[in-house]
Design goal:
This is Small ribosomal subunit protein mS23. The chain has helices spanning about 25, 30-40, 50-60, 75-80, 115-125, 165-175, 180-210, 220-255, 265-275. It is mainly α and about 280 residues long. The longest helix is centred in the last third of the chain and has 36 residues, at about 220-255. Among the domains are: about 115-215, no CATH class; about 220-250.
Length: about 280
Amino acid sequence: MVDPPGRSSKFHGLVRDERCKPAIDLAPKSDFLDRVTLAMGKQLRPARVFQTVTEELSHRILPQHQVQAPPWYKALKSIPPTETVIRSRATILQASTSKSRKPRNLFKPQQITYEEDELRTIFFKDHPWELARPRVVLELDGKDWQRCDWSRGLRQPGLAISGESVVQRQMWLMNNTGLPRDQAYDIARKEFYALGQEEEVEKRVAREEARYVGAYFGKNKLDIAQDLEDKQYETWKQWAQSEVVRIEQDRSASYHKFGKGDEATDDDVAAVEAAEKE
């Protein structure tokens, strides 16, 4: 393209190649807005990176020179990005306790709390050994909670009595009977103690009946623990005896060697007497 007449230019008469336009003119206005917003630090729309790079590779300034595609070009072509890169603002579930007006951690997942969490903390703090009780967490269809009726008490079909039973029973009493938390906790806790005593009596009676007809159960947990403790005590006793013998031998050896290096010989005595006479 030749410059129009009447235009002052020292390059007047030279032919200008249409392909020598700036790269930004080759992109549509939407790409231009994307670049401007990206330069400003605010990404307000999905970045059309792949389309922009494709157009720049197809419209080369110097046709005789081959432009090398970026290393991520093929990967981005096979796995395109999502339609939007803007994350939705998380719903604020808790009131902010800070005095600053500027919100922080808008996109950070907030801590989810339930009504049962505090009740579980109180129960297991008062009964720490309940955490050592074996529990079965396997469910058949995931709807076992629908078959539980906590108005009847702690015994539920298909569920073993545990600390979770106390928590659910306490929460039912609080929500349906209007009892305060402490009173509902006392009621559920006493029911838990009573059922635990019943189970212990049933196990004891069943064990006695089985032994009466000739069954043999072997050692219980207390007997096994006592045997292990006795074994460790005997090991420590042997080690202590060997240490006492070693200490006594070292002490007697030190007394036996005391003063031997300081005794004077006959030659030393004669030399001292000769020196005194002179």
